[in-house]
Specification:
Shape: globular
Strand content: over 45%
Oligomer: single chain
Number of helices: 3
Structural class: mainly beta
Radius of gyration: 19 Å
Helix content: under 10%
Largest sheet: 9 strands, mixed
Distance between the termini: 14 Å
Length: 336
């Protein structure tokens, strides 16, 4: 059972929501989505993804036209590629307004793309060893679109954000096609949850550009869909970790031969030994079929969640930790 419209419940409990947007002259009027956040050095930092397309998703089987399926990507006529650019933003931690933003300058390290998905996708922001990293998947370095997680080290100046180093991380199973959506563990530098069910923890060695398994659970929970990565992991009650993950009901071809997707999210809590303590029932944020959350942070007694809506909008929500505790333990069911 999916809990519908979690944002409405949050607002009814006194939380706030704020749209995240930048001037159209920088985004080209195309989609803003899938932002990650990080509170460090008394500043709420954000990486905001801009995709050079507009997504149309027909809900409830009401198609845009008989020539298109429920899931359609609209590009510029002269560019048939999925291109991502990223903006570094600073948010007001109280009202969630954007204080400043700058496009991340990647020109120093960019090379001619070899595939049609271009740029660093769904970058999570981390601050380890006194360095800022945007960490996401890049698929434009091979002719078959093989994806690997990449660390983009950022130099943050007053009016300029530069990518100054780029590390592409290989995995132990080198035949893997696409690595993506690794979840940074905020207080464990270079550690990630690679998979949630069963839990798979890796640590990245930047000196050798490889990742190694630190923990792999033998237990897998019986759920209808695979649980995929989402937000960073933040410290929670009783020496645990909290994150938001997603699952996707992907239909390669429906009855008319078109693909379709439906995303839902879950709260996850791990114990300190990485055993699972809690998995919530699935929920959506604002009832759309295409929503995606990679932003979760705690500032004092408030929780901030940022999510993308149909790849065309981005929203930040703030609510007290007590309300989130009530959502986890009283509103939503633990499916373990």
């Amino acid at each position: 059972m999916v809990y519908n419209n979690l944002v409405k419940h949050i607002l009814d409990c006194g939380g706030i929501i704020n749209p995240i947007y930048i001037d159209n002259k920088y985004s080209g009027g195309t989609g803003l989505c899938n932002a990650s956040i990080l509170y460090v050095n008394n500043t709420l930092h954000m990486i905001l993804r801009n995709v050079e397309y507009t997504l149309h998703h027909s809900e409830n089987k009401k198609y845009q036209s008989r020539y298109e399926g429920p899931l359609s990507y609209y590009h510029r006529d002269d560019i048939r590629k999925l291109i991502t650019q990223n903006f570094y933003c600073v948010l007001d931690k109280d009202n969630l307004d954007i204080i400043s933003y700058e496009k991340i300058d990647t020109s120093k390290l960019d090379v001619k793309p070899l595939w049609t998905f271009i740029g660093l996708e769904d970058a999570r922001l981390a601050y380890w060893s006194n360095k800022f990293y945007a960490i996401g998947v890049r698929r434009d370095t091979t002719t078959n679109g093989q994806g690997r997680m990449e660390f983009s080290e950022l130099q943050i100046n007053n009016n300029e954000i530069l990518e100054i180093n780029r590390n592409r991380i290989e995995v132990e199973h080198t035949g893997s096609y696409c690595e993506k959506n690794w979840m940074p563990i905020k207080d464990k530098p270079y550690h990630f949850v690679k998979w949630t069910n069963p839990t798979h923890i890796v640590k990245v060695d930047l000196s050798n550009n490889i990742s190694k398994t630190i923990y792999l659970s033998k237990d897998k929970i019986n759920l209808p869909f695979d649980i995929r990565g989402g937000s960073q992991l933040i410290s929670w009650d009783d020496n645990t970790y909290l994150a938001i993950v997603h699952e996707c009901d992907f239909i390669a071809k429906n009855i008319n031969g078109y693909k379709n997707s439906k995303y839902n999210h879950r709260f996850i809590i791990w114990n300190s030994d990485w055993s699972l303590k809690y998995i919530s029932e699935p929920f959506n944020f604002m009832t759309a079929h295409i929503e995606f959350c990679i932003g979760l942070e705690q500032i004092e007694n408030n929780i901030i969640i940022v999510f993308g809506f149909q790849d065309n909008g981005c929203y930040a929500v703030k609510v007290s930790k007590n309300i989130v505790d009530n959502i986890i333990w009283k509103l939503l069911k633990n499916v373990l």
